[in-house]
Specification:
By secondary structure, the chain is α/β, with parallel strands linked by helices. It is built from seven helices and seven strands, in the order αβββαβαβαβαβαα. Helices cover 44% and strands 15% of the residues.
Length: 201
């Protein structure tokens, strides 16, 4: 059985046996605010000004929203935690951009909001746009940031599927997941068991 087949089987099994929380889609919604990078100006479609980000965090605070960790929401859907409070919100960041350290961190420290950062280890301490391992360690020491996997080097699996045989794709995906998990746990400690697929797949 290939890794892909096993993944699909486990996913189906989890959906079949997991206790379903009692809620309706209309009455229970937890928004997930996704950020990529921020700065003094908007450089592209993935960038938000730091001032706008701070105004959003202030809005959550002033209007009675409760920011919860992504893991708390996942545990709820797995039947391992009670339902989040009304007006709960989750904050996540993709790619571990250096502006998370320079711009997001001071704001998050002020409001004490939990954030999940999804990073691909190949960029850390290598790409000039990304954070360093020491910066990620500092984030984790605050107790506010959970660093999880965004695969090893952020491939587009849809494109890889067109180029590779099923067996080669299976090996490729397995390598991406295992290398990312191993590197993150080695460098940062803790448990890596959450994944954000690159390009939303």
């Amino acid at each position: 059985m290939t890794f892909t087949q096993l993944f699909r089987l486990l996913l189906v099994a989890a959906l079949l046996v997991a206790p379903l929380p009692a809620f309706s889609a209309e009455s229970f919604r937890v928004p997930i605010l996704l950020y990529h990078r921020m700065g003094p100006t908007v450089a592209d479609g993935m960038t938000m000004t730091t001032a706008v980000f701070e105004s959003q965090m202030k809005y959550l605070h002033d209007n009675g929203y409760k920011v919860i960790a992504l893991r708390q929401l996942v545990d709820y859907y797995r039947g391992k935690a009670p339902a989040p409070a009304p007006k709960s919100v989750v904050i996540v960041e993709d790619d571990a951009h250096k502006s998370v350290y320079s711009d997001m961190l001071p704001v998050i420290r002020r409001y004490r909001y939990p954030v999940t950062v999804f990073c691909y280890p190949s960029a850390i301490s290598n790409a000039k746009y990304a954070m360093t391992w020491d910066q990620l360690r500092e984030l984790k020491k605050t107790g506010l940031f959970d660093v999880q996997s965004h695969t090893y080097w952020h491939p587009n699996f849809k494109k890889e599927r067109k180029k590779l045989t099923p067996q080669a794709l299976d090996t490729f995906v397995t390598t991406q997941l295992r290398k990312s998990k191993a590197k993150l746990e080695k460098e940062l400690g803790g448990k890596v068991d959450l994944l954000a697929w690159p390009f939303g797949i």
